[in-house]
Design a protein that fits this description.
mainly beta, two-stranded antiparallel ribbon
C-alpha cells in the first residue's frame, strides 16, 4: 500500500509539521481513500511495514506519538530535510 496525498488540518495547508497532517490518502488496499492519522497509527502498530510513501526511495510509514500523546505517522528517516510525507501532494 502507498500513501499518495495528504490533507492538512484547517489553517495549516503550508505547514511542515507532521502533527498537523489530518488525513492521508492510501492506495493499493481494498478500500482506497483518506484515513485519519490516528487510524493509520493503530493500523501500523498491528501491521508494520505495510504502507510506504509514494516517493522514491519509498520509505515505510511508521507510527509515532507526540510529547502530549497525540497519535500521528511519519516516514522512516532517509536523510532529507522534511519528512517524505510532507512532500506528497496536498489536498
Amino acid at each position: 500500500m502507498y500513501a499518495k496525498k495528504i490533507k492538512m488540518k484547517y489553517g495549516c495547508r503550508h505547514s511542515n509539521n507532521l502533527q498537523e497532517i489530518d488525513e492521508i490518502y492510501v492506495d493499493g488496499c481494498t478500500n482506497p481513500g483518506f484515513f485519519k492519522k490516528s487510524v493509520l497509527y493503530d493500523f501500523l502498530k498491528k501491521n508494520p511495514g505495510s504502507i510506504k510513501v509514494y516517493i522514491y526511495p519509498y520509505p515505510n510509514v511508521v507510527p509515532a506519538l507526540s510529547s502530549n500523546g497525540e497519535k500521528y505517522v511519519r516516514s522512516e528517516s532517509n536523510n532529507i530535510f522534511f519528512d517524505n510525507l510532507l512532500q506528497l501532494p496536498r489536498i
